[in-house]
Amino acid sequence: MPLGRPGGQHDGILPVLYDLALVIGGEVSLKPLLTRCLQRLLYYTSFPAGFVCLDLPPPGKDPSIEARIEVAVGDYNLVELAGQPVSLPAELLKPSPATAADAGPLLSQLPVPVGRYNSYLRLPIDSRSVIVLLAPQLPETDLPVTRMFLPAMAHLAKAIVLCRSYDSQQKANEAQIAYLVTHDSLTGLPNRVLLQDRVEHAIAAAIREKKRVALLYVDIDDFKTINDNLGHAKGDELLKTVAERLRGCIRDMDTVSRQGSDEFLVLLSELEDGSGAALAAAKILGSLAHPIQVNGTRLDVSATIGISLGPDDGKDFETLLKTADTALRFGKEYERGSYRFFTDAMNQGVRDRFFLESRLHGALDRREFVLYYQPQVELGSGRILGAEALIRWNSPDLGLITPVRFIPLAEQTGAIVAIGAWVIEEACRQAMVWRAAGLPMEVIAVNLSAVQFTRGRLLDTVSRALEESGLPPECLELEITESILIHDTEQTLAAVRSLKSLGLRLSLDDFGTGYSSLAYLTRFAVDKLKVDQSFVRDLESSKEAAKIARTIIELGRGLGLETIAEGIETVRQSEILCAYGCNQGQGYHYSRPVPAEEFARLLEADARARAPAGPVL
Amino acid sequence: MNKTSMHYFPAFDEADIEGLLRGWKAVDPAMGILALVPEAEKDSVAGLQAVCSRLGVPLAGAIFPALIAGEVFRTNGVWLQRLDQMPFTALYEGLPDDATVVERIAQDVRGQLDDIPDVTLFMLFDALVPNIGTILDELYLHLANRVRYLGVNAGSETFQPMPCLFDNQRVVGNGVLVMLLQPHKGGILEHGYLAPENMIYATSTEGNRIVHIDWRPAFEVYQELMQKQYGVEITRENFYNYAVHFPFGIVRANHSVLVRIPVALGDDGSLFCVGEVPPNSLLTLLEAPAVDSIHTLEALNKGLVELNGAIEGRELLLFYCAGRNMHLGNEASHRELEELKRLTGVGSIAGAKSLGEIGPSTVGGYPLFHNATLVATCL
To answer: Which residue in A262, A260, A250, A268 sits closest to A205, CA to CA?
Structure first.
């Protein structure tokens, strides 16, 4: 027998106690400490099972005590009860060491099958904690087991205190880590991880209770500009203030979360319908409408909100987020500073857009774009002066697509820069081909997008196109819209002046439909005004339209500018415009936009007709 | 446990095996197979898997150094043990690195337990898993006395890595195959090694490596004890010839002794054993000639009868430790097997040579990892 020797020699005790001390000293957390200590005690004493109770109530007269088994080893019934409150015999848990060989009646009160154990060894850890070892029969030993483990129990009592301290610190650390994992460090708001969990729960509850949840996707308008202009530190301060205001707009049961950058998500639960979400969105927009002070700087911000309702628009977080995002994008595109609910039609629009976007990508490399040319004529004589180059997209999948469908998309994706450059180069090249062939091509007009002004290297593009094609600069006419000039910045002015310095001509498109500021015409040294087709179309039927068209033409003449009317479809329209003093025109009355080969034929025919011996057009 | 049947094929023949399985399945449609395959026939596992999968027969098994058939060790053939109703069987990989395996086993087993009181957790380990003792400790914390523990180690006798555990689809190493036999009374494990009185302490150990004994290099103490107890001079050169015959015993509080056969000698004088040696284990140097076969067999027989009642005529599944076989030699092992059959009166013995054994210290007690034992059970 290792724990003793016949004759009462106990030379096996010291290594046992040494080992037990190592086990106790080797653990820092409570449960492993108690488990390993109990395991070793069972090993040394040959008791097959045991359990540990801590924090026992003071002894009373009641024969049983409500206790909690912290750890149990060796008995499945007790292992299953670990961590739960159980009623145990008070006698078994007394704060004094004891061994009992015939304790069957006492042990029959244990939550294990009756008769399994008849003997126990009780080892108090301190006055309120105890280890109880159990056996069917008392294992044979000549050791004073009730006394020999007492020093180890005192050691264990101290270790328990230390482990509890460690465990509570660990819990605090874990809580801190859990907080960091689930919250945004800048604003302290729940992050996407936590929000996702809450959304999933809220949707489940909404389905169960036949209610609604709303997910509001809040995006600060033009935050990038604010951040770029004021610096990231102030941008961060702004976001913190926005977070506070959002929190102030919702109920305690709702959640505001920061999705990233300037995007916030608001979860509204237990709604009857969408009206609650609309109210909250309006409240948020109202709250953000008040100026925000950031380190002495007053900032006026606005936000756009996309709203999706669950479970109607999505039964899971990802779907609900996607639909709210779709609604947000529609809001951004059509009405910033407002809120917008998701609709199925948006989804169709988004699908169409994504498909178009996917096909647009690489279309230039695949040579799917072509230029059509619409003749521009001298109104009085009908002579062809030149043409406006108009892009068409000939997609193998989608057929011929008009610019109205793909230019806005190309502007949003930035693809317009490369596409626009190609248009300029191709138009110059083609115009020069015609001129070289002896055809009377005086002007080629090309439309410019506002994006080309801000993102592209327009001057380089135009210079290269002129240089490579050999087209005289005065033959190139760039058509710009009022929307470009409306950003009446030094940058725009400098860009326009640089272009003008190349010797080309500038035409102001759609004049009369927008701000129509006279200041543009002088500041930007425009050469030609283009009368919008909407006025031309109603020329015969609307006195108002006729008056505006006439005013624009007279204004142009007054300023020494050429004027050209677009959208002429009838002889009468051309006569009226001519009578008003308009110099030039274009429209279906003369010719629809046609491919280059066809336009060449038109030019040839026109030239032949005007030759001295030729027939009159 | 339901009625069982064992069949030994001296050679692997897919058609013969398919014929047998078809017959068995016709009688017991839910039957499954426990297969024991010798290392020399390991290539037949794929064929076995194919047959079983084709017939929809659940398969579990392991590859051992040799099989026991006709009371001798054989390196050919295959044993098929029919289980009328295939019990819960699961093959876990990734030991010892995957710390979740034990918890998964415990969870899976818990999910299978119902009101049947007598349940045996039968485990087949890859012998190269280095921490089987620790795994058993952990398992016992979860399942305690709810199951009886029984098992053996499979693999190559050369202790070279070899995928040795299989089911219908996989053949894996570094794992454990568990079967939950219910109702089942467990098994008996005995070695019969006698422990002398001299005790020493493994004061420093790392897994299966004894670094220090009584704070001195383990080999130095081993040499000293061999000289003192048995008059044998051990050197680094003759260590491998002697060690299998003079194993350590870990002496436990209830008088039980776990045999630990030293199998390698470290440069620093440490000794590597088959099976973990917990720190501060009380060791003894077991007496080489004193393998008490009669006592071992009688204890086995007595234990089996206590568990199962009369076992005459029944089929006995037996695993015989390779280390014990090395110590006794084939002739003595053969006599031991013959004597076991005569003493128990069983109809037949099927089994394999194992590389470590698992059994409780007492009936229904703590599972321990052993060497040099015989493990027997009636399925």
So the answer is: A268
